[in-house]
Q: What sequence folds into this?
């Protein structure tokens, strides 16, 4: 809900938010399939959002020599949007995580691992 609220405040869809969020990682280029995998959104949903963002001038889709499919690149307008609206969300995440004490971090990780283990056990019974 926190990220959904952020997307609403920015006037973009949840899918567009996660596309921008993913593309804020400037260390690599992503394909549509990789964005689908990382966001757990359907190919159709991601494709529709990508086409709208491309039409609106935020990104370009280019055939890749190294990867199957098209790679997604932010335009200058897209980079400016990420810098102005997505990076502050990333900084907020870092700030919130930085507020944890070492004890709280250990407790959180221990609890999360336990939840994951129990959830895996329960789902394997389905």
A:
């Amino acid at each position: 809900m926190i990220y959904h609220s952020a997307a609403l405040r920015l006037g973009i869809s949840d899918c567009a938010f996660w596309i921008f969020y993913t593309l804020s990682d400037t260390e690599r280029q992503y394909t549509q399939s990789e964005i689908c995998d990382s966001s757990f959104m359907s190919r159709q949903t991601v494709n529709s959002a990508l086409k709208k963002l491309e039409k609106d001038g935020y990104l370009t889709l280019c055939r890749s020599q190294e990867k199957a499919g098209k790679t997604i690149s932010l335009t200058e307008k897209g980079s400016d949007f990420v810098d102005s609206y997505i990076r502050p969300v990333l900084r907020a995440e870092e700030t919130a995580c930085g507020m944890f004490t070492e004890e709280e971090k250990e407790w959180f990780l221990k609890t999360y691992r336990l939840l994951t283990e129990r959830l895996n056990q329960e789902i394997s019974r389905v």
